[in-house]
Design brief:
Elements lengths: L2 H17 L10 H14 L7 E7 L5 E7 L2 E3 L2 E7 L3 H8 L2 E8 L4 E11 L2 H8 L4 H9 L9 H14 L11 E15 L7 E8 L2 E7 L2
Helix pairs in contact: 5-6
Length: about 220
Amino acid sequence: MSFLTRLRTIFTLGQGVIRGLPDARPGDDPIALFRDWFTAAQRAGLVLPESMTLATATPDGVPAARLVLLKGVSAQGFTFFTNYDSHKGRELAANPRAALAFHWPILQRQVRIEGCVERLSPEESDAYFRTRPRGARIGAWASRQSEMLSSRQELDRRVREADQRYPGEDVPRPPFWGGYRVVPARIEFWQGRINRLHDRLLFERRGDGWEAVRLYP
């Protein structure tokens, strides 16, 4: 972390811990606030500020959580990409609800998101897939994500086969791989404060808008 980045981090940390979260006003947009916080995390020099915990559950309520990378945020929601046949993909097919959690500890900030999940269109998934390095695109074809693997050699063999099948830069997106969007119904912002008297601001979807309330720490 550079000296300038450290100064930015200290400045951002001081703003949050000392000033805290102001009360929400009618019409405040939690997506805009998330973007502000995400930009602050990027400027602070944090490693992979886009990493987020994705929690899913089976229809009978058995939970699972893992870290994935945020690949886009818009008024419609938060997007990530994976193998449709993976553990999380199968759970989302059976129970299309999820929770996300971001934690930027040096800034003493967390964001929690809950909502329904929908697949991105094939065109959206194709557009993102083309931006991935060739090796990652080949890897998407080679990996039977979450299935049992007999040995590393088997995976290496599947990578070689995919590499030979698509020798150039034009590696198409596998039909079993693509994007999801978490459409938020609830977004909670957590700002650390002294004496553990933290600020928590919860936005809940109400029709086309949002209603915000403050929570006890």
